[in-house]
Structures are given as C-alpha cells and as structure tokens.
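Researcher: Here's a chain I'd like modeled. Treat it as a single chain, no partners, no ligands.
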Amino acid sequence: MNANQPTPMRRREFLKETVAVTTALGLSHRVFAATDDTEPKLPEGKKLKVGLIGCGNVSGSYLPHITKQPFLDVVAVCDIIPSRAENRAKQFKVPNVYPNIDEMLRGVPFDLLINTTSMPSHFPVNEKALRAGRHVWSEKPMALTLKDARLLMDLAKRNHVHIWPAPTCVTSPQFKFMAETIASGRIGKATVGRGTYGHGGVSWSGWFYEKGGGSLYDLGVYNVTTLTGLLGPAKAVVGMTTIVNPTRKVEDRGEVKVTADENTMLIIDHGNGVLSNVQTGFVQFDNYRLPGRERQLYTVDILGTKGAMHLQGWDWGPAGVDIAHEEEHVLETQVREPARYNWVGGATYVAECLLTGKTSLITPEHGLHVLEVMNACHESQRTGRRVSVETSFRWPIFG
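Model: Modeled as a single isolated chain. Structure tokens:
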C-alpha cells in the first residue's frame, strides 16, 4: 500500500448494550458479527430517520451532506425562527417543519436528532431528545457544565440510546496516522503538543461573544479534542483568557457587549512529563484563507524525543501530515488524501455505527473530558491557579 494512502479504520465489536438499540431500530443482531479485521457493511435497504434542529448557519453545511447519504432519511427540520426552518425544508426537500423541539418530538417519528442550535441551547435540546428516546448527535459542546453533561450521559444509558458530541476530528485518517505513529515509537516518546485555531470572529450572531459562547468552546475545542486524543487525558490545566474588543457588531442584534473569551491560551499536563498548549481566539488574522498556497499551514504539532509531526490544515479539515525523525531528517508528507472525512460528517459517522455495529471512535466520555478541560481553563483564569482534571476516557483511541 502506498505510504500516502490512509489505511482503513478498524473497529471492535459494538458494546453489548447497543444490541437493544438495534432491536428497537428493527436491525438484525448479525450486524454485530464484524471483527477488528473487517469493515462492517450497511444493512441493505435500512435507513435511519433523522431530524435536524437549528436551521442557522451551520445547518447550511450539514444539510447538503446528510441529505445525500443513501442510508439517512431526513424527515424533519426545526427552528425557533420558523421561516428559517421552512427555507431549509424547501431548499433540501425535507417534508416536515417544526417551530420548537417539543412539537418536533411529538411529530413525525425519527431515530437520530442532529443538534446544530447555538451552544447555550445544546443541553436543553439534548435533554428533551434523550428523554424522548432519540439518539443525539450534538454540535460541541453537548452541555456547558459537567453536571449537565453527566446528566445527558446518564439519560442516554437509562433510555438505551446514545449521545455523541462533536467534533469528529478523531475519525480523520490524519489523526489515525499520528496516533499510530506515536504508538509505534517512530518519533520516540511524544513529549510536546501544540495546537492553534483562530480567526477574526463570526459576524452572524451575538451569542458567540456572550456567556456560553467564546473562542475556546467554538474553536479551541477541536485542538483540545485532538491533543487529548493523541497524547492522552489531561491531568491538570493552566489557562489565561482575555477580551480584546469591548463590543462587537453582529448581524442578528447589532452591537453586543463581549463577555466571553476572545483570546485564550491553554496549557495541558497530560502526565508522564507530557505537556501541550492550545492557542485560540476571535482576534487572529485568518492566514489560512490566503490564496496561492502550495502547502497549508501547520495547526497541530507533536514533538518527540526522536522526531516530530506537523498537521497541515486545521484538524477539522486536515490536508496531510509532515513527519521527520532520526532516520529521515527531511520532512515527508504522509496521508495527503482526505478520504471520506468531513467535519460535518460526525452525524453520518455515528449513524453508520448504529446501522452496522461499528464501535464509535467518538465517545461521550471524551466529550465530557474535553468540556472539563475547557472549563478548567476558565477556572484557572478566574483563580490564577493550576486546576486538576478528574474525568478520563478510553485511551489510546487506536490500539
């Protein structure tokens, strides 16, 4: 196999408790017969019914993707601004439109809710869907507090459904290559991680700059997910955040006061001598969009005692991995092919897991951990102290 070609992702058998879910969906238990050495196939003719709530900007990326999947049937859209839902329904030929989550859950049956509402709305929407016995794919984060996130996870378990939080970067072939390279010892002991993701801020809505928003929840969450996924769960955090602009002008509300972080630096202690940092913000020049680039910028770096890896492009849209080590001092690009990976593909990925029995690389435990890391960053800013992290997740993600 060509070194630049990503190898197929392998999955273990789905958790035994999920068998009850497949029964509810009318699927055969035989879909759980796949082993690590096979890629389970979608059951012929089976479709998962999907409802999407939140018909704003992000839905404009999700709907073109999910409506093209042969194993998904998008049966409903919902938004508290009914005209937005009606426009999306017309644009993507979705048959049912609802003005709120309560009417949506009482309406046409569906299996999986895709939540693309504003971040402060994630928890209450997710809670209602789980109580109604629906699987949930939630944009990040799934809740704003650990208490609420744990409640969601408990609800899902109690009602024999699942919740998965974005982002989906651990499913990219580039992430898999980096994780397996670290495990192989090719770059020695991985000791340092660096992540960066920022731009000048969004213009369409004010909630990004208010409590429950901010650059860390919106942007830095990708790097926190990637770095903990590669280097292991965080043990402690130090963070500093600042507000650069007292106010912002946005399309939906005019001028708003900025109360959430615009510029954030996060340091993570992964234990065993391993440190990483994340720089994120709404106050950075977006050089990623400069034209005429032959090589995309590096946004994630992993440094080891015998080599280094550098991710080209954002971890939500990676272009390749450059690697150099003791035996090869010249940077060589690996995993250039993006394959099927797409940042809006998390919902379709977990739908495939439900239909085939694949074990999801995306887990609520990892999402809970990332949320604790981000909240610890804010606590560190408030207190001026190093903050311990208590949660964990299954790691390493590969192997």
